[in-house]
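All the exercises in this workshop are built on plain-text protein records. A record pairs a protein's sequence with a compact description of its fold. Backbone structure tokens are a discrete shorthand for how the chain folds in space. Once this layout is familiar, the rest of the handout is easier to follow. As an example, a complete record with its sequence and its structure tokens follows.
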Amino acid sequence: MATILLFFLLAVSVVSSGEAAFIGVNLGTDLSDMPSPTQVVALLKAQNIEHIRLYDADRAMLLALANTGIQVTVSVPNDQLLAIGMSNATAANWVSRNVIAHVPATNITAIAVGSDVLTTLPNAAPVLVSALKFIQSALVASNLDRQIKVSTPHSSSIILDSFPPSQAFFNRSWDPVMVPLLKFLQSTDSYLMLNVYPYYDYMQSNGVIPLDYALFRPLPPTKEAIDANTFLHYTNVFDAVVDAAYFAMLDLNITNVKVVVMESGWPSKGDASEPDATLDNANTYNSNLIRHVLNNTGTPKHPGVPVSTYIYELFNEDLRPGLVSEKNWGLFYPTGVPVYTLHLSSAGAVLANDTTNQTFCVAKDGADRKLLQAGLDWACGPGRVDCSPLLQGQPCYQPDNVIAHATYAFNAYYQKMGKSPGTCDFKGVAIITTTNPSHSSCIFPGSTGSNGSSVNGTSFAPSSNSSDTAGGCLPNYLYGTSPYTSSMILCVLLMTLAFF
């Protein structure tokens, strides 16, 4: 996924094991139509996403991730932090239930204890380090401490005076927490988890930070930010914030703890007060971020040292409160359709939607067969889909069942309508996937990567009480006997003539 790194280090020694940087994705669940765990895992695999961060330790999700090889970061939610930080036994029980019960089948590699605790839950700060230590002790007792790292994500706002990076330091009021925390990370060979959001830095700068600087766009040398103390040149906000964290650790005499960015991204939609939350800017930021990370360029302070990063986030979350932008950080809609097509032609295989953008419409597992039959009849009738490949003796006749045939017809309609929103529903028995359903000599429409012809007006599948039968033709698709009745064939012919 990325090239071998480690060229050299500058200024401060940072321990590196020689691994390449990786891109991961956060999985938020504030969705009104959250995909099932198996559907989420199918999307991760189709997009070659090998690192995922959960904001909890959901059992169903961890079971679905079993035997996939995907590296998983599980989290202790903030509302459980106080109990764990005050009781070794409670921490051990949490690890037993949420980690030990799932490894080694599920490849859990890290535990994030809380999130933005210092800035969002200050009353829990006094027990934060204890919680880390109790979790670590439970891992040691189970001989999992080498496999699983323990840390806690921080907002970058705990770093003060962050530019120039060389004069950055952590908020002094948190020294009683940060000093033992960093020493814990150092002693356990763990890493500082940091959330880096150039979008907010840009929005809060009142025009001081140029948009191009936040989006990783190339800057002329005269526009690059230069640290007057180190003479290091900064071409983007992301690197400046990461280096500010390194210098803030150095201020506390910590020199060998790496930074892993647990959240970074850009919203694709905003309200009137957020004019730069756009599809184009989100695409630009995340595409450039992924290339930057996977190229192993490191930062000006630590060139070649990996800065592995998790994108915020996999799905748009329509249930999140706040501004419009809060609901629109996702790479995908809940249906699995990309919000935008990433520009990643030189970044490796991760996030396959960069080159193929292939999505297909298939019948849902366990869907009601009567509804599948009705949807199939509609697609091959009023929907004007070419269902001839489903005839006996044709490439897509087998397997001869309503699920397989409905999948072909649903997808043919979805592709025919240019993958327009709403054209893969069929009263809830169809779903969009990135997995190509083609099999043997049965090649599904859309397999070549073409989006098909676009349409201005979207034609939706019929409602459950629709009696539309395409000019009086009776839907009559039978299984185990003949694939089409003669009346259905005649109906399709009449429909074709009427269409043209």
